[in-house]
């Protein structure tokens, strides 16, 4: 399973790196697709004015990246905690089974 | 797939909010019942929500030269069903709307509908259909997560097309244009999401077999 998982993770990394290699000559801006959609809205309907603006915006790219990393870190931390707990449970259970196994055999 | 703040006319914003709200409420009730009846599944629920947090924070480069992010909802949808996932996805979308100016409050209903409802429903249907048809869990989860991700972006494109029909070619023409913005960018990311979700499912089948068994009973699966 470990080997399969590592291969899969390598494939995901390759999928993320490939676009950077393909566009290495600086032809692409790598902007957000969400923003491209907003631009398309204005192209289709030049009169449309967004009628509401975000109540708070991160004051800079740095602060935005802080909050995005925080979001990812919270999620990754919790998942790591979860699997750490589960793998610890699994090894404790295995040890208990190993200890209990000879005696149950005698009993039965 | 986040429709930016203010980028849906009032009527459309209200419509999508009204469409999403009942599903989220139903999901909230289901979560309360799940935690009462199967407290063992609480940690797995939290971890599935955390997975949505991580994946929707990762803006990945795509072959088209623009960036987008996976949704992370396929895992929770496969494990807990679509309405529970609607609640988890809504929490993430609210976090991003309030703290990151990513998406928005007026477009929250529409964004919940695409990422937290439509995608998870498709993912759940595919996961159940494929596992019942005898495919391995890994195959089922891969296609569930991949198409859940793609459908999310297609729904966003349709929502925008309905609100902003092309003056010449109408809603259909606009849909083609919006799909052209989202779909090619999303396709490789959807594959990544499918693959990553398989890794998590592999770990779950190894370490959390007892929790998965509890869930099977809780969701009424055979």
Principal-axis shape of chain B equals globular
Using DSSP, what is the number of strands of chain B?
Answer: 2
CATH class bucket of chain B: Mainly Alpha
Helix content percent band of chain A: over 70%
Would you give an account of this structure?
The complex is a heterodimer of chains A (108) and B (222). With 108 residues, chain A is mainly alpha-helical. Chain A has helices at residues 2-22, 33-44, 61-107. Chain A has 2 domains: 1-53, no CATH class; 59-108. Chain A is elongated, with a radius of gyration of 25 Å. The two termini of chain A are 35 Å apart. The relative contact order of chain A is 0.03. The mean pLDDT of chain A is 90. Chain B has a single domain, classed as Orthogonal Bundle (Arp2/3 complex 21 kDa subunit ARPC3), CATH 1.10.1760. Chain B is 77% helix and 2% strand. A two-stranded antiparallel ribbon of chain B has the order 1-2. In chain B, α1 (10-37) crosses α5, α2 packs across α4 (82-99) and α3 (73-80) runs antiparallel to α4 (82-99). The interface between A and B is large, with 59 and 74 residues.
What does the secondary structure layout of this molecule look like, with pairings?
The complex is a heterodimer of chains A (108) and B (222).
Chain A: H1 2-22, H2 33-44, H3 61-107
Chain B: H1 10-37, H2 42-57, E1 60-61, E2 67-68, H3 73-80, H4 82-99, H5 108-132, H6 137-163, H7 170-207, H8 209-218
Search tags:
heterodimer, A: 108 residues, mainly alpha, 0% strand, B: 222 residues, Arp2/3 complex 21 kDa subunit ARPC3, two-stranded antiparallel sheet, 8 helices, 2% strand, globular
Outline:
The complex is a heterodimer of chains A (108) and B (222). Chain A is an all-alpha fold.
